[in-house]
Structure formats: C-alpha cells, structure tokens
Amino acid sequence: MAAADEGVHNYQPASPPQPVPGLPFFEDGETTRTIADYRGSGVVMNFWATWCTPCVREMPSLDRLQTQARGIRVLALSVDRGGAPVVESFYRKHGIANLDVLVDKGAKLMRKLRVRGLPTTLLIDSGGNEVGRVVGPAEWDSGPVRALIRRTIETRAAPTTEAGAALSPSASIRTIPSSPAS
Asked: DSSP state, 126?
C-alpha cells in the first residue's frame, strides 16, 4: 500500500470474491434492474446520495469514467428518498450526462451488501462477483484508479498462475482531498 501522504489508501479487496445479490434497483424510477442485467461487463457500482458532500464531489469523475472505460459499466445508485426526480435534477444541475438515473429504493441493496457509509463503490467482475470496494470518494477517471479498475475487474477473467492462484491487483488508489479546492 502506498504512503498515506500520497493520498492513496481506501481500496479493500474481497477475498474471496463474493457474488452480488440479485436484489432489484430501478432505472429512471421505473424499470427494474439487477446485477444480472450487466453480466458480461465489468461494473463499477457506486452508492451515493445528493446530500452527501463527498459523493457530490466524485460524481463528475464517475461521469467521465463512463466515457473512458471500455467494457466497463458505471452504475451510480442513488439512495435518495426522493427517487429518480431528485437524481435527474442533480444530474442537470451538475452536468452529469453519461450516467443512467439509478435508484436503490429503501437502500435495500446497499444494506444487503453491508455498505456502511457513502460513498462506497463496488468493483464487480463480468460474472457478477464483487472483487473489491472503495470506501470513500475517489478520482475515478485518474490514471491510477482506471488501472486499478482494469486490474481488479480483469483479474477474475484473466488466466491464473501455473500454480492455479489468481493474480492479485494492487491495493491502493488516489482519493479526493476532503477539503474543497479554493
């Protein structure tokens, strides 16, 4: 793990990787989705809320990541009680143009996945298994974070070593500073 003064610290690998439960979340407030709808793609599943300051700061980088990451879907699941209209308004206000409006009604999936705080982001391989999570905000479109995403999500699909062990990704990423820039 890199030194804390480099701002790199909050990736937690899942050992062993765990299947993500098939609980529903909602697209545009109406269409039911589950993680199975995204099988075959790596997934960056972010739990957030419009009232969460660190979440608000990282949303533009998640939006940019969606345009930069090939073969990876970014799913930003809002836990706002106001549902899709609140998220749509937030997206318009902040210029978020590349993310679907997704809502985890009643935070049921968030609770089932034992997400304890916002933002928390799961890295899910193409088979629907959580391979790791980032607790707290991150600069999602930065080079080191994109490299971590590729390594962690691709690790599950990549060949194993001659001894049969899966290759392990690095365990650190660059985080967003906690104080706003002046």
From this structure: T
Q: How far is the C-alpha of 21 from the C-alpha of 30, rounded, in Å?
A: 20
How many angstroms separate the CA atoms of 135 and 125, rounded? 18
Alpha-carbon span 59 to 76, nearest angstrom: 8
Q: Which residues of 83-114 are buried (b: 16+ CB within 10 A; e: fewer)?
A: bbebbeebbeeeebeebbbbbbbebebbeebe
Segment 33-46, tens digit of pLDDT: 999 999 999 999 99
Question: pTM, whole model, 2 decimals?
Answer: 0.82
Spell out the domains of the chain, with CATH numbers in brackets: 4-155 (3.40.30.10)
Burial class (CB in 10 A: 0-12, 13-18, 19+), 180: exposed
